[in-house]
Amino acid sequence: MARNSGDLAYALRLLASGQSMAVASKEAKYKSRKVLADRIYDLAERVESGEVGGGKAAGGKVGVGKAGAGKTLRVIAYSDGASIGNPGEAGCGALLIDHAGQVLMEDYKYLGRATNNVAEYEGAILALKLASELGAGQVELRVDSGLLANQIKGTYRVKSTRLAHLYENLKEMTKLFEDFSITQIGRDDNKQADRLANLAISSRKRR
Q1: Distance CA 69, CA 82 (A)
Q2: Edge-to-edge strand list for the sheet holding 88-97
Q3: Distance CA 41, CA 31 (A)
């Protein structure tokens, strides 16, 4: 297949080497991560039906991409936000892993000047956007922000007008999934998302 039309084999080799969906879709010349995810999903269905690969994969599941027909893909999403100065230059990061701990997708976003709480919300929104693109049906979002976790659970009220629209956006996005939950974790358990959030800021500074 020509690279300019999307090279699935090349994308799969990149993913197998540990590259993210964002990198694989870009390097393999796909228009978006979703287009690549759809191609992997189609391939997974063909493997499971026995059309290619000599039969179903072990356990009938494929590690990267959407779940096979009749299955619901469950992902664990990690997100974080960072702000230098609070408010100051800010960024957010998110990554998705499967039940085996394999990274499925990751991304980061530079936010300009924002507070840490805004960055935390933006990170959560980014995580759910990635999960939606991947076709996940069940999502557990893990964050280290107690404010974010408790506001989404309804334990805390959203008093800040600055956060209100982000809260509404995030709550609306949770409806995209069959099952959604949010869990507060320690900062030491969220290092990968924190790395991505800070990478968003440092990458922007180097431009």
Answers
A1: 38
A2: 103-114, 88-97, 74-84, 138-143, 179-184
A3: 16
What is the rounded distance in angstroms from the CA atom of residue 92 to the CA atom of residue 21? 17
* Co-location of 94 and 28 in the same domain: no
pLDDT in the model for residue 207: 42
Residue 67 lies in a domain: no
Q: Tens of pLDDT along 122-137?
A: 999 999 999 999 999 9
Residue 204 tokens, joined? 């922007």
Give the DSSP H or E segment for 141.
strand 138-143
Task: Label residue 204 exposed, middle or buried (CB < 10 Å: 0-12, 13-18, 19+).
Answer: middle
Pairing of strands 88-97, 103-114: antiparallel
Q: What's the CA gap between 103 and 119, in Å, rounded?
A: 22
**pTM here?**
0.69
* Bigger pLDDT: 9 vs 206: 9
Asked whether residue 145 falls in the same domain as residue 192, the answer is yes
Mean pLDDT, rounded, of the chain: 84
Looking at residue 35, its amino acid is V
CATH number at residue 121: 3.30.420.10
Q: What is the pLDDT of residues 90-126, one digit of tens each?
A: 999 999 999 889 999 999 999 999 999 999 999 999 9
